[in-house]
Model the fold of this input.
Amino acid sequence: MAKEYLGVKGVPFKDVNVQEDTAAAAEMVQKSGQMGVPVLDINGTIIVGFDRGAIDTALAETEEQSPTDINEQ
Done:
């Protein structure tokens, strides 16, 4: 749902498969403190799970939308 939501909003993002990329999985755990997916890193704001309100808030706080990382399995 997170990928679809960002796509509809026209937000560029990088999709990372943490099941295949162990370094990315370790980074995700370091950032979020857990293995649950999705984990979104919106310019340093970490969001675990699909939380539309938190995503909108993080995007609104960003004047310049740079690629958003989404970690999924």
The two ends are 13 Å apart (CA to CA). The chain has a mean pLDDT of 87. The chain has one domain: 2-72.
